[in-house]
Amino acid sequence: MNANTQEKPIYMDYHATTPMDPRVVERMLYYMTQAYGNASSTDHVYGDEAEAAVATAARQVATLLGTAPRNIIFTSGATESINLALQGHCNARGTCQQIAVSPIEHKAVLDTCQALQEQGKATLTWLHVDQQGRIDLDYLREVCQTGIDLICIMAANNEIGTIAPIQEIANIAAQYNAAYFCDATQGAGKIPIDFDTIGITYLALSAHKMYGPKGTGALLIQSDANLVPLIHGGGHQRGMRSGTLNVPGIVGLGEACKLRYQEMDQDEPAIQAKRDHLQSLLQAHIPQLVINGDLKHRLAGNLHISIPGLDNSMLIARIRHQLAISTGSACTSGIEAPSHVLQAIHLPTDLIEGALRISIGKFTTDTDITTAAHLLTQTYKAIMQKHDQ
Q1: Which of 212, 230, 260 is the last residue of a domain?
Q2: Within this chain, do residues 317 and 209 fall inside the same structural domain, yes or no?
Q3: CA angle 82, 79, 42 (to 5 degrees)
Q4: Closest CA to 84 of 98, 100, 73
Q5: Smallest Cα–Cα separation from 18: which of 218, 209, 249, 153?
Q6: What's the confidence (pLDDT) of residue 337?
Q7: Which among 21, 64, 193, 344 would be 20 to 30 A from 207, CA to CA?
Q8: Average pLDDT of the chain, as a whole number
Q9: CATH number of the domain within which 97 lies
């Protein structure tokens, strides 16, 4: 049997992207095939229907994240949202901004911050994290006392799954009159986030991390925040992000947010139970297995492991047609360099080389869990046996 006729591999790379919920697909299809109007063309009913759909999606995003629809700007995804927030913040102020940034942020945040520093628009101060990827809040306070304009700390890490204490971070930001940018790409729809109550200034998210479509995201902006837009022309979205709105994508994001709001509280504990079962099965057969991240505060679907003495790329190569997992972030997996997240938490070299990111979600079955555990343990043992010969 050739690879094309085999069953598809078990999918356990939910942090890279999630499968789309069929209910989201169905909702989007109507706006692709029937209600295809331009949301800005309000001289006829096609445009009216599209405009109403965008307004509904804004309410759905706002409901999930605890804010008002007027605070939402639709974008092409989290990377654009991140750039709009960080570049827009610095460009609006004219003076070199002091930015305190976590070293385990996604590359979209780190690279944007680095670019702003190279342009002379920002000076970066690197925050401290411990071996579980937890922010040193005392050091954050120390840094803020020196004068910080903007804090960049994600809601949950995309590799090791550690969840940040965003309320405490926001409190510190408010105490020192700093803006707080939160990359919630992995957290939105998985952990409760109340944008207004917490006091976050800017928040980025992407539909495809919560069972929605790729190519659609949003930036939440507090009403008193001041940003310079990146994209000009037409004055769409209150001038903050011009361009014809991607109505089917926005509808998909809204529907995904609606479903997460309705089902997150029941889905996430079920996902966590499956993750814990997979972890137990692997630990039972691989005694030296190391679990990375904060075991008490991590995403329900995250299992980031290291196996000493294992070449992770060798294991991936052997199982890639049966099991879809990764060695790290999807945005950097094609780059031959150790994970910056694992380096920042000072993981020993042998554990970095043997690191695997397994991420599951609402469509992962109990059979998937037991089959994956068997594949991983048997493949690991085969590699080590050959290595010892």
Answers
A1: 260
A2: no
A3: 90
A4: 73
A5: 209
A6: 76
A7: 344
A8: 94
A9: 3.40.640.10
CA distance 95 to 305: 43
* CA nearest neighbour of 237 among 4, 54, 388: 54
Residue 136 sits in the same domain as residue 249:
yes
One domain for residues 305 and 163: no
Catalytic residue selected from 90, 96, 144, 331 = 331
Three-class SS of residue 285?
helix
Q: Are 367 and 277 in contact (CB under 8 A)?
A: no
Q: What is the pLDDT of residue 41?
A: 82
Tell me, yes or no, if 331 is annotated catalytic: yes
75 by DSSP, 3-state: which?
strand
Contact 278, 360 (CB under 8 A): yes
Question: Count of domains in the chain?
Answer: 2
| Residues 284, 152: Cα–Cα separation, whole Å | 39
pLDDT below 70 — which residues of the chain? 1-6, 329-336, 387-389
Q: Note whether 109 and 82 are within 8 A (CB).
A: yes
- Confidence at residue 340, expressed as pLDDT on a 0 to 100 scale: 95
Q: Which amino acid is at 353?
A: E
Single-letter code of the amino acid located at 227: L
Containing domain of residue 271, as a range? 10-19+264-388
Q: What confidence score (pLDDT) does residue 331 get?
A: 55
Of 197, 229, 260, which marks where a domain is finished?
260
Task: Answer yes or no: is 2 within a domain.
Answer: no
Provide the pLDDT for residue 3: 46
Are 213 and 95 in the same domain?
yes
Burial code (b: 16+ CB inside 10 Å, e: under 16) for 43-68 equals: eeebbebbbebbebbbbbbbbbbebe
Q: Which residues of 213-226 are buried (b: 16+ CB within 10 A; e: fewer)?
A: bbbbbbbbbbeebe
